[in-house]
Amino acid sequence: MSKKYRNNPQKAYQKKLLQDIKIQFQKALAKLNDPNTKEIGFRELQNIVLEYQSEECLRLYLSLLCDRIIKTERTEVILMFGFLAQVYKLALLDPLDKPPNVIKTVVRICDEIYSYLKTNVNVVEEACSSSLLEIFTHCVPDKDDKFLVSAIFYKPLAGYIAAGGDKVAQEKAAFILYKFITHLIEEDYYDLANFFAPKIIALYVKSSCISAEFTKTCVLVLKHVGVKYFVTFINEILFKQIEILTLGKSSKEQRISRVDTQYHKEKVASCEFLAELAISLQTVPDLLIGFEENVMEVLEDTMSDRVVKVQQAARFAKKRWDDFNKIFDVIEEKKWVVDTEMTGLYPEEILQIRTGLEDTANERITYFLQNKVKDLYSKGPKQSDPSPIGKKGRSMSMGSDSNILDSNHNKNNYAYPHKAVRTGENFAKFELDDSMWQNKVKSSKFLKSRQGFGGGNIPGKRIGKKIRTYY
């Protein structure tokens, strides 16, 4: 025993214990390289962690799992990071940090997990996504901190996807992102999902990644947040789907060699994306003027693909786009009919069409009279509890202006101020407003279509106490 531990037997015992744990952990790691013993080795690693859970042991586990000399590409090593997070939870404190901080430890472990994306192991992305979700669930103290979650879990994956140099790492990062967004939606982290939604859509448009999982991620976002974030990039998104569906069909030689069958997963995901877009875009069909024809042509061609799943997905998407085109045609027809019906009409007739009222003059007079009653009673009414206007058998006191309800003649006069007999200055403002409104409509029509009346003096201009009209 050295002099350092001679007077402190407890420290000597801890050092000896750590050495024994290290030997056991190394032996269990060695068993992972043999397919016949990897399950036994993985269970031994888990038992060691469950038995010894101190901070010194955590430092030992992390150093052995990250050791470049004995490092293995087995997925069990990656899964051990998630198991450590599941066991230690918020006590995942690496003694190397002064003072120990769970966020620093999480960042260090996540960086080690991301380094496995460059390997050629097929199922390594599943192990990476599983461990990252365990870390997010158990070791992130404030999940409402959107920028913290983005810095640890989103930005590294987005960097691999946007780079595009390493296609293997790009596809694996897209797979992990798909699993991460799925977890957020399933576990009701809607604020985080809404925060990442516009970032994912912009990344999908700008990157060259055509991974099926990346397209599925956009489908999840579309179902969750709707079409509002897709409006800006709708043409780019549709153009990318057309490119995906035409992969492997650029020449006759490629058709013969059946190169197109290797993209069947991407094509199925693209068809699902198009089908969901057709459903969501029914509320805003004007966004796709002139573009829906190209989508329909590509889907019809994809229905004859060699892979049955691609054919089925293309048929489903085409059916949804047929429904969308019907709605689009109906809306365009209604627009044409409305524009045709409005041509050459007077303002009162336009009001009838747009408001659905049978007698717009009476409605406008009623609205004016109701406002006049409010003004009179706000100054001091002569009779309380006024009855509503427009109902038979009921009347109200309006002072000196009550004679306007005596006959339809006066009512019609005040519906058309240019024909009215002026009975007092109480209705001068109404005459002016109505005169200016009709002149404004006709002037606007003249400026747009060069038809009707236009030019001359300003409509409704006052001359003394009278109102001048020009028609």
Keywords:
471 residues, mainly alpha, two-stranded antiparallel sheet, 2 strands
Please describe the topology of this protein.
Blueprint: H1 3-6, H2 9-31, H3 38-51, H4 55-65, H5 75-88, H6 102-114, H7 124-139, H8 146-163, H9 167-186, H10 190-206, H11 212-225, H12 234-245, H13 252-256, H14 264-280, H15 292-302, H16 308-342, H17 347-355, H18 360-379, H19 408-415, H20 428-449, E1 462-463, E2 466-467
Antiparallel strand pairs: 1-2
Helix pairs in contact: 2-3, 2-4, 3-5, 5-7, 6-7, 6-8, 7-9, 8-9, 8-10, 9-11, 10-11, 11-14, 12-14, 14-16, 15-16, 18-19
What would you note in describing this structure?
The protein has 471 residues and is an all-alpha fold. Among the domains are: 1-141; 348-467, no CATH class. The protein is 64% helix and 1% strand. The protein contains 20 helices and two strands. It has helices at 3-6, 9-31, 38-51, 55-65, 75-88, 102-114, 124-139, 146-163, 167-186, 190-206, 212-225, 234-245, 252-256, 264-280, 292-302, 308-342, 347-355, 360-379, 408-415, 428-449; strands at 462-463, 466-467. The protein has a two-stranded antiparallel sheet with strand order 1-2. Helix 2 (9-31) packs antiparallel against helix 3 (38-51) and helix 12 (234-245) packs antiparallel against helix 14. The protein is elongated. The protein starts with a helix and ends with a strand. 27% of the residues are buried. It comes from Euplotes crassus. Residues 20-313 form the TORTIFOLIA1/SINE1-2 N-terminal domain.
